[in-house]
Design goal:
2 domains; 17 helices; six-stranded parallel sheet; Rossmann fold; single chain; alpha/beta; formyl-coa transferase, domain 3; three-stranded antiparallel sheet
């Protein structure tokens, strides 16, 4: 679908590499431009023979070049690619590329069709536009860390990259929107995506609840349960495993009451509205805990709830996620092969198109692995010119990782 689109990815770790990988899956030629030390995620666990599964997961299917922008020749090389690219993804700290003369305005002056996507923690405009940060900085500024804790302990930082993954998807959407506009206008544009903007989309009701209530509602979960819905949280079965149960609406509460053998509670004035159930939250939780004691396993309880039309789900651990037949069959979890790491599980694509196939992704590149191929085919350089850039230190290539002991 995106065949012929050339993407320069100057980013590292998660969000930018994710957006670029999705573009590669849709057929774009993605060139990962790294400094000689490489993407810092190459150092992340788990590693075998110096090769990181973290890095491989997000960087399959890309061409890898390594350019030292600290040299004038390195700057020249990057300009050759910028002048021929459709998209540039800038995931470095604010000001890093500008230091070498690469801003949206300078790039657009030499390539009016280029779409430049800038990723940042808090946006690159405003008083906090120079703040650096990883996923958790977005969680802090968006209020997500605050609303994840019940206040009995410290605020809770997400243990997975919620903001980075959301920002990567936002970047992907923004880039596609800008590319669509290029067809009509012939001009690219700047796409500004930040962690805090991506994170704040996850507030389904917290901002408006606080505003409408005049600040009386500053929601945090209550004993692990949702502040606005009752019941909506995690429960335990006698086998020591957990499941999630929710009755979002009054008619769902009627179903749940019938499921636990107490149909009269469906219309009981203590529980017949969301507000009433929240006011009697502990009674509701005690009723469910007492009912769950009768099930030997988590999965038995989930099955009973689903038969009654109640929304419920098992809380899967990572091994269960990888082995889940539904997730494997859908490709939500897929197995990939790497010559060094072997076969391992990674997240599958977040969307599927009925009329467009994914492009098969090759292995993740080593640092500078495709220097010659990229600068010959895309950059238009001769073998002699490429050799001269290598000799000057502007182009760098690391030896390939080898099989070895796990890090």
């Amino acid at each position: 679908m995106l065949e012929g689109i050339v993407v320069l990815e100057l980013s590292q770790v998660f969000a930018g590499p994710l957006a670029a990988r999705l573009l590669a899956e849709m057929g774009a030629t993605v060139i990962k431009v790294e400094r000689p030390t490489g993407d810092v995620s190459r150092q992340q666990l788990w590693r075998t023979g110096g090769r990181s599964g973290y890095f491989v997961q997000q960087n399959r299917g890309k061409y890898g070049v390594s350019v030292d922008l600290r040299t004038p020749e390195g700057v020249e090389l990057l300009w050759r690619l910028v002048e021929r690219a459709d998209v540039l993804l800038d995931g470095f700290a604010p000001g890093v590329l500008a230091k070498y003369g690469f801003t949206y305005d300078t790039m657009a002056a030499r390539n009016e069709r280029i779409v430049v996507c800038e990723l940042s923690a808090l946006g690159r405009t405003g008083e906090l536009g120079t703040v650096r940060g990883y996923d958790q900085v977005g969680a802090c500024y968006s209020g997500v860390a605050y609303t994840s804790s019940d206040g009995a302990g410290p605020s809770i930082m997400p243990s997975v990259a919620l903001g980075d993954s959301a920002m990567g998807l936002c970047a992907y959407a923004g880039i596609l929107s800008a590319l669509y506009a290029v067809r009509d206008t012939g001009r690219g544009q700047l796409v500004d995506v930040s962690l805090v903007d991506a994170y704040i989309q996850s507030h389904s009701s917290n901002l408006e609840a606080y505003s409408i209530s005049g600040g009386r509602i500053n929601a945090r979960p209550v004993g692990g349960q949702n502040a606005y819905i009752c019941p909506a949280g995690v429960f335990e079965t006698p086998d020591g495993r957990e499941l999630y149960i929710v009755a979002m609406s009054n008619h769902e509460w009627v179903r749940l009451a019938g499921c636990i053998g107490r149909p009269e509670l469906g219309t009981d004035p203590r529980y017949d509205t969301t507000e009433h159930r929240i006011a009697h939250r502990q009674d509701v939780l005690d009723l469910l805990d007492a009912w769950l004691v009768g099930f030997p396993t988590r999965d038995d309880a989930v099955a009973a709830l689903r038969r009654a039309g109640v929304v419920a789900a098992p809380v899967l651990d990572i091994g269960e996620v990888i082995d889940n037949p539904h997730l494997r069959a859908r490709g939500t979890v897929e197995m990939v092969h790497d010559d060094v790491l072997g076969e391992f599980a990674v997240p599958g694509p977040p969307f599927r198109l009925s009329g467009s196939a994914r492009s098969p992704l090759g292995p993740a590149p080593e640092i500078g692995e495709h220097n010659h191929e990229v600068f010959a085919r895309v950059g238009g350089l001769s073998d002699e010119e490429i050799d001269a850039y290598v000799a000057s230190g502007a182009l760098f290539a690391a030896p390939p990782a080898a099989e070895g002991a796990s890090a």
